[in-house]
Amino acid sequence: MASLTLSDPVVQSYIVYSAVLALKLLSVSTLTTLTRMAKGIFSNPEDATLFRGKVKYDDGTIERVRRAHLNDLENIPAFWLLGALYLTTGPVAAVATNLFRVYTVFRVIHTIVYAVVPLPQPSRAIAYAVPYLIKWYMGIQVVLYYITAV
C-alpha cells in the first residue's frame, strides 16, 4: 500500500477536485432554490405562503434541475470513495491528477447540459459516460492492486 501524506501532489490533487465537486453539489442545490424562487413554484405550502408562490410538484424546469442534483448525489460520492481508495495504490501522479481533473470537468459539463442549458443527446450521455468510465477504471485498479491480499 502506498504511503499517503498531505504533501503528496496526488493527494493534494484529489483534495482539490473533491472540494470542487462538493462545491458543485452545493451549487446545484442552490440552483434548485433559485429556480423555484424565480418561477414562484414550491413543493411545500409554507414556502409558497412565505414567498407568495404556489405549490406545484411537476414543473419541468425545476424537476430537470432536481434530477441533475440527484444524479450528482448518485455519482460524486462514489468518486470520493473510489478516488480515495485509488490513492492507496500509488498511482502515477500525472495519470491520477488527470483522472480527477477530467472527472470533475465532465461532471460540471453534465450539469450544464442537463440543468443549465439543456442540449440534445448525446451531449449529456457523453458528459455522463466519461466520469462513469473513470470510476470503473479506478475501482478496477484498486481491486487488481489488492486482489492478492484476499
TrEMBL record:
Domain of life of the native organism: Eukaryota
Transmembrane segments: 14-34, 76-96, 126-147
UniProt membrane topology term: Multi-pass membrane protein
Catalysed reactions listed for this entry: RX + glutathione = an S-substituted glutathione + a halide anion + H(+)
Enzyme nomenclature, EC number: 2.5.1.18
Stored InterPro entries: MAPEG-like_dom_sf, Membr-assoc_MAPEG, MGST1-like
Localization per Swiss-Prot or TrEMBL: Endoplasmic reticulum membrane; Mitochondrion outer membrane
Keyword line: Acetylation, Endoplasmic reticulum, Membrane, Mitochondrion, Mitochondrion outer membrane, Transferase, Transmembrane, Transmembrane helix
Signal peptide: none
Primary localization class, coarse: endoplasmic reticulum
Oligomeric and partner information: Homotrimer; The trimer binds only one molecule of glutathione.
Family statement drawn from the similarity comment of this UniProt entry: Belongs to the MAPEG family.
Function, as annotated: Conjugation of reduced glutathione to a wide number of exogenous and endogenous hydrophobic electrophiles.
Name this polypeptide is given: Microsomal glutathione S-transferase 1
UniProt organism field: Iphiclides podalirius (scarce swallowtail)
